[in-house]
Amino acid sequence: MKVLLKQDVTNLGRAGDIKEVKTGYARNYLIPNGFVIGADARSEKEQLFLDNMRKRKLEKRKKTAEESASSLNGKEIRITVKTGAEGRLFGSVTNQTIQKALEEMGHHVDRKSIDLAEHIRQLGKYTVQLKLHEGVAATITVLVQDEEGNNSVASAPEAEEESQPAEESVETSSVSSDD
User: Fold this and answer.
1) Is residue 103 one of the residues assigned to a domain?
2) CA 123 from chain center: how many Å?
């Protein structure tokens, strides 16, 4: 039986598509729930209408995403976190943390659109990509700082050692060979 999808149906298709389905599936599930209508000449007009509606919605979403991208591009977000002695965070900065910081600034961004390769676990400045819509992206800077306002790992004594690992390993090996 040929049917016209009135809305997106998982594992079947998107609104406006004409699909061939089994008669029982259409009569017992799809049609009673209002997901589809039978495909005939009248339904072709409805399909054109639904296609136009979908295009308008898509254009509106893209326009909104472009406006958001222009206002967000280059913004710096400061996130204050608790840290240990080594400058390591208690926990991590995630998509949700960044989303909450953006909402406090008045920007509503879905956490799934925040492209964070892995959670942030150190103090510092990070560049984060926001994929707001297909083909529309913005880049923001996330500044992770501790409660005192330090945003550099070098402020912790052991972090200074991490910045010079080759020299220390030489010194450590010479000290251990003397013993």
Assistant:
1) yes
2) 21
